[in-house]
Amino acid sequence: MGQKTLVFLLLVFMPILAMATTYNPDFLGLMSLKDDWKNTPPSWTALDPCSEWEGIECTGSRVTSIKLSSMGLEGTMSGEIQTLSELQMLDLSYNKDLTGELPPSIGNLKKLTNLILVGCSFSGTIPDTIGSLEQLVFLSLNSNKFSGRIPPSIGNLSKLYWLDMADNNLEGPIPVSNGSTSGLDMLLHTKHFHFGKNKLSGEIPEKLFSSSMKLIHVLFESNELTGKIPSTLGLVQTLEVVRFDRNNLVGKVPSNLNNLTSVNELYLSNNKLSGPLPSMTGMNSLAYLDMSNNSFDVSKIPTWFSTLTSLTTLMMESTGLGGELPVDLFSLPSLQTVVLKNNQVNGTLDIGTTYSNHLQLIDLQYNSITEYKKGLYNDTLILANNPVCLETDTGTESYCKVSTDSQSDGTSTYTTLPNNCVPSTCSPNQISSPNCRCAYPYTGILEFRAPSFSDLGNKSIYKELENKLLTSFQSHQLLVDSVALSNPKKGSIYLDLNLEVFPYSRNRFNRTEISEIGFLLSNQTFKPPKSFGPFVFHGDEYENYQVISTEPKKSKSSIGIIIGAAAGGSVLVLLLLLAGVYAFRQKRRAERSSEISNPFVHWDSNKISGDAPQLKGARWFSYEELARYTNNFSAANEIGSGGYGKVYRGNLPTGELIAIKKAEKESKQGGLEFKTEIELLSRVHHKNLVSLVGFCFERGEQLLIYEYVPNGTLKDSLSGKSGIRLDWMRRLKVSLGTAKGLAYLHELANPPIIHRDIKSTNVLLDDHLNAKVADFGLSKLIGEDDKDHITTQVKGTMGYLDPEYYMSQQLTEKSDVYSFGVLMLELITARRPIEKGKYIVREVQKTLVKNQDLYNLQGLLDPSIGLATKLRGFEKYVDLALRCVEEAGSDRPTMSEVVKEIENIMELAGLNPNAESASTSASYEDVSKPTSYPYPPNKETFDYSGAFPPSKIEPQ
Ligand SMILES: *[C@@H]1O[C@H](CO)[C@@H](O)[C@H](O)[C@H]1NC(C)=O
Ligand SMILES: *[C@@H]1O[C@H](CO)[C@@H](O)[C@H](O)[C@H]1NC(C)=O
Ligand SMILES: *[C@@H]1O[C@H](CO)[C@@H](O)[C@H](O)[C@H]1NC(C)=O
Ligand SMILES: *[C@@H]1O[C@H](CO)[C@@H](O)[C@H](O)[C@H]1NC(C)=O
């Protein structure tokens, strides 16, 4: 991070955590979302959600947008989302493992304009509070598992433009307003009613439609609606797509339907409609008319059929249609498909000579046609089961066979072809793009709910769609190379097309790009060519992200400063030379690695790392040796992991156990830093600090060997995972041990060390429940020139982090004191510092009443602390913890003061603070059996992250 960036970051982010002892409420809200979700982006471990978390956008320090489509998120939606009160955009589409109900508190997001949850698995009823989102413009809850009724309160969303609830299990009537209750009829600005594929029942209220509405798409297909089509439908002059097919509608089709002169697609099929067909004269935009499977009373083919000048598709199977087909019907210029199966069409079929040159299917099976006047028309015609095909001279004609032509079964074989290039042979899972580059495409299905065409074999429509998609991606600054479509398929209701989107100039997208592409499609920012009609995209999860180390830049401040200060080419040349020599030697060394036995020779040969490390007590291990002790670093020996790499348990030949931390490639430091680190660690010896046993620096591997602490982390004990019950006395003892370890680091180590990441996963417990502080990975020497130095990167863990340090970037011992204060509160409550959006420090401060028993904190305490017995010294302990988390570092005690105070409390509580393991072990009889329970209980929280540079900040 350059100085400029740093200054910039300082200016921009200082206000974020500006409230000392309270974190930004938005961050707490995000933390609760994160808590409830699996598979959040790896960047969600960074300290500053606004600048570093993928999918999050902020204005100032407030979160305004969350876009996480196709992320593979798993879990439920926390009610704490309500804390994000400035949120405008929420898109969680295409995360099919997001489940559970929508929390009613979502109604508190008063600024929300877009709520998009397409293709998740949310269930339960849609909360009525959704009607409080008064700024909402775009509401897409389609393709989930919502049940129950449509909340009438949706009628209050006066700004709503898009309402999509299709493809759920919604039931009950369509709500309309009635005196005091709201209803969908009030949505005068809404253009889209998408309610298909639900279980809505009851009659469609007359009141639903009015001439004041601006609806263009009304989709109620595939429900259980009964009654008549309301005549008020004819008042909505703006309508373009109307689908009421696949319901149980009865009665006459309203005669004013032909007032809807903008309608392109009209689907009334699969109902129980009856009576005469209304005249559709004047519906000059009508392209797709499907009235199949009703019982109309039409003994004569209506003459207005031939006046529908835009018609591409006429579907009237099984409708009772009778009479002779007029020859001019086939002259409609755009006509592609005429399906009049199973009717009483009679007389002669004459297609004429001026028939539409788009005509590709005429299906007249099961009619009463007696003669076919053969002309030039040579595309698909089906007359099977008509009298004309029963005659011996014509019965063998091809039109008398039931075609198995692809056109009539609703599929086509379109696939985007290469753009004048030869497809590449790609490694597994990669696909050759239309521009013949191998990449991992983002995929999904585009579903068109009412296309105006029926000829699926027309390649030019797909080309047009491809071009529009590509242009749309590019005009939104998305680096897309090309898009490919394939496998168009007309199922019973919709037209589906496979979509592949290829990245430009790289072989994969990153998470930000995926969520933006997903958003472009989920938010309907992309408009397909008009003939495709309304669409919905069903995105797949994208799994091909680069496996990036969560590791930010290494803290190579010293090297950075040298380079910066010298800024001369000569230094660079020198460094390059050294690097070359280093590489050469590395190679040679690898060739003779078997000979190597002396680490210090090894170290000598490495110019960059300088002289062999000056160690106190720690020893060198060979890689082979360590491999042997850990059964070749087998998974069974793995006892923990973190951003830096993994921790293994090793068995020394003496039977002694060790913990070996093995850095992953990304976490490795330069030889010099590694050396500094082990020199430092080897000097630190205290019974409350996990001590370094040795190291290994060989074959490009960096390993640190620690003493093995058998009872796992404090967090495991607090969470109940380890099976150790911590009563009040034990908790005091643990806090004392931790405080002593820290006091040693601050005041006795030479040079002094600031830990920088005190938390319950970094405190380990031994057989006698002595606390041992681990993880000096973030440790900072308080060196000569370091004292006033701005550290280049704030490190720590959200929840434990000292807000003053975050703001000032000025690191002092008092930051550890703050974290220790948080840890003290964690010790009595067994709650994580930030849990369900609540910050422990604030919760304690809020609840605390000085003159009451236990300061009124009973409700917050961990029950296993033993509330039945008197917690002697409890109030003094809380006083101390709260002094540690004072806003100003200068108001906090030093660690040695903390030690003294805890000792006082313990004496008050009747415990001898200086009692050593022998006596304590007697009183902790159930603990001194390390072998009696498997170690460690929980891999994830076990964190020995020691001397490797830290991975990014881990929020808890
Ligand atoms: C048809 O629309 C016109 C306005 O374009 C309106 O005056 C007329 O009343 C409507 N007819 C019916 C039957 O709704
Ligand atoms: C066709 O059917 C109609 C009744 O649906 C009848 O009036 C007409 O005469 C029939 N025409 C022929 C040629 O059979
Ligand atoms: C159908 O007829 C057109 C001319 O009207 C001709 O170009 C085309 O090749 C014919 N197709 C077949 C399959 O015979
Ligand atoms: C993702 O890719 C875009 C380019 O499309 C780039 O600008 C952005 O920085 C990348 N984000 C991350 C986190 O790498």
Automatic annotation (TrEMBL):
This is Leucine-rich repeat receptor protein kinase HPCA1. Keywords: ATP-binding, Glycoprotein, Kinase, Leucine-rich repeat, Membrane, Nucleotide-binding, Receptor, Repeat, Serine/threonine-protein kinase, Signal, Transferase, Transmembrane, Transmembrane helix. Coiled coil: none annotated. Residues 633-906 form the Protein kinase domain. The chain crosses the membrane at residues 559-584. The keyword Ion transport does not apply. Residues 913-956 are annotated as: Disordered. Residues 914-923 have a biased composition (Polar residues). It holds the Pfam family PK_Tyr_Ser-Thr. It is found in: Membrane. ATP binds at residue 662. Residues 1-20 form the signal peptide. Its main location: membrane. It comes from the Eukaryota. The keyword Transmembrane applies. One of its GO terms (molecular function) is kinase activity. It comes from Ziziphus jujuba (Chinese jujube).
